[in-house]
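Sequence only, no structure available. Ideas?
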Amino acid sequence: MWQSLSHPSVSVLELVIRAVVVYGFILFLIRISGKRQLGQLSAIEFVTILLISNAVQNAMNAGDNSLFGGMVLAVVLVIISMGVAILSYRYKKFRHLVEGTPTILVRRGELIHSHLEKERLTREELMTLLRRQGFHKIHDIDLAILESDGTLTVTASSSH
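Reply:
I predicted one. C-alpha cells follow.
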C-alpha cells in the first residue's frame, strides 16, 4: 500500500510538465476572460485554487467515482467546515490559527515595509487598494489594516 502511495504511476518530469502546461493554459484563459470575473482573487490565486482542487480529488476519493462516494465526501466536507466555524467562534487561539490576524500596513502616514513583505503585497498593489477607497496619498492615512479575510480597512488622518 505505501509503495503505491509514494510512487506516482507516471514520471515526475511528466507531472511537472503537465502541471506547467495546465497552469499556463488556465491562467491564459482567465486572463482573456477579464478581471471582473475574478472577484477578490488574483489570476494566480484563482488558478492555484482550481488546480489544487483537481489535484487532490483522486487523493481524497481514492478512485471511487460513485455517486454515493461523492455525496459522502460532500457531507464530510460540510461537517468539517461547520466544525471549524464552531471552534473558531468558541476559541480565539483556534480562530487566529485558521483565519490569521489583521496586519497593520500603514500607521500615521508611514508604510510598514516589513508588514508589506510579510503579506507579499507590493506598494503598487497597496496603492491600488487605497485608491479604491478614495485615498491617493499615504500621508492622508492614519491607519490601514489588512484584515484576516483579505479586506483593507482604512482610517483617514485628522488632516484628510
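The domain at 101-156 is CATH 3.30.240.20 (CRO Repressor).
Hope that gets you unstuck.
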